[in-house]
Amino acid sequence: MGIFTIGTGPISALAVAEAAADPTFHVELNQEALNLIGRGREIVEQAAASGQRVYGLNTLLGSGRDTAVEEKSLLAYQVQVIRYHNSGVGPYLDRAAARAVILARLVGFSRGGSGVRAGTAGFYAELLNRGVYPAIPREGSVGSSDLTQLAAVAAVALGEGEAFDASGMLVPGAKALADAGLQALQPAAGEALALVSANAYSVGAGALALVRLQHLARLADVALSLSLEAIARYDGGGNLSPFSPAIQAAKAVDGQRDSAAAVRRLLSGGWLEDVRREASVQDALSFRAAPQTHGAFRFLVAQLRSGLEVELNGRGDNPLVDVESGTMVSGGNFQPMQLALSFESLRLGLAHVGISSERRIAKLYPPQRAIRARHLAAASSAPGAASALIQEELPGLLWYSAAGLLAELKFLAAPATLGAPTLSADIEDHSTLAPLALQQLEKSIDAAEKLLAIESLTASYLLLEAEAAQPLGNGTGLVAGRLADVLADRPSAPDLVERSRTVLREAVDQLFTETEEATP
């Protein structure tokens, strides 16, 4: 069992993703965080006692911002706020994403800007530790705080709403709390808004997407390396000069040198390193300029990590409880524009990675035709022996599937953040649509992973069928061997791609973990 300790120091997006994905993680707030939360709560209570008008503490929300809430109604108003915002629709988040939402909001409490009680923050930690899985609708946020998703969590905390039990069945929120040994939370003045007003869905689910994007950055280099091996054997290509340290040192692009270095490591020890080998002076740009494309994508992934950690370690609350000045201040830190634009740019980057991958697959198609012709020729002379060869062929139209996936990636690259309408009597007249941008990115990730799996399969198949037995690189040899085992089972095309995605995740993790551990 892992332990995720939340203090007042920096929080890593990857650590959040790890703890969210693993339900055995125990989450705890250290004393420094509890002390900071306590100081923030004192400021809220002082503001409430002073009678000063503070947004959401003793006023209505949105267009009702200047309408006071009577003191005798403040506690009832907390419940009303949560019920009012619990309006999401669509499919429910999976367990990892739901945990990520709760965890991201808990981290937000620890920054001292929300003004919740320490006990309320501790209650959210116990939702995670005791396996409470709120049913959180995926749709409903326009990216000016993920109000509807967080209200679904808060509703369960109140003993309302719905959650999933251990068997995956929907149950009332009150039952989920009771099964976990928890009593329903009774929010204090100002806490309802603090519970629902944050970007915890975009941040939490974004952290999970970050892990997948890091895998894709590595997988792109693996697929490229396998294609270089294949094109060297069938078309006299595989020129490694574009990946040389000299080329990479000539232009300081973040990520480009990492991509080129990864390709060199994957091919190390193999035939492509032989300086006596004759190769084309220049390969097509989908090979030759791949470090530039993959490197730019790596740069965007790094930007996403930075943007997520700005949100995790900042204070996005409105009103902000400013511990330094002892005041509550209205502001717009709940508007995660930087994060939304990062989700946007990554979809465009993935489309370019996909274009290069599909073009490499196209160049691997003529050798497949030659292999089929060879198999057919064998069939005419020895039908029984040739039938086994034909059965072992790669599904012939995987290239077409790759082309369809590329079309999807291009479609998904269109802007998502520009379409928000004005809301709440034109008071909320701009939104980021960060959740929509993230959801489109999740679709892009899925399509890109399938596309790169098809490229890896295609290249590995050709390497298995190559008549000459030149040695593969240390990394490409490992991957091709793993994919050979999948191909040998002759699964259907859908199963072939899905099994290959699993095998590639494991192989990429192994290859790059070993590299990281070997780096001083």
Percent helix? 55-70%
Low-pLDDT stretches are none
- Note the main sheet: 3 strands, antiparallel
Which structural class matches the secondary elements?
mainly alpha
**Count of DSSP-assigned helices:** 20
Q: What is the overall shape?
A: elongated
Spatial strand order of the main sheet:
4-6-7
Distance between the termini: 29 Å
Radius of gyration in whole Å, from Cα? 27 Å
Task: Characterise this structure.
The chain has helices spanning 13-21, 31-50, 74-85, 95-110, 118-129, 147-157, 173-179, 191-196, 200-235, 245-249, 256-267, 285-288, 290-313, 337-363, 365-381, 383-391, 398-412, 434-465, 474-488, 493-518; strands spanning 3-6, 26-29, 89-92, 133-134, 137-139, 162-164, 170-172, 320-322, 327-329. By secondary structure, the chain is mostly helical. The strands form 4 sheets. Strands 4-6-7 form a 3-stranded antiparallel beta sheet. A hairpin with a 4-residue loop joins strand 8 and strand 9. Helix 1 (13-21) packs across helix 9 (200-235) and helix 4 (95-110) runs antiparallel to helix 5 (118-129). The two termini are 29 Å apart. The mean pLDDT is 92.
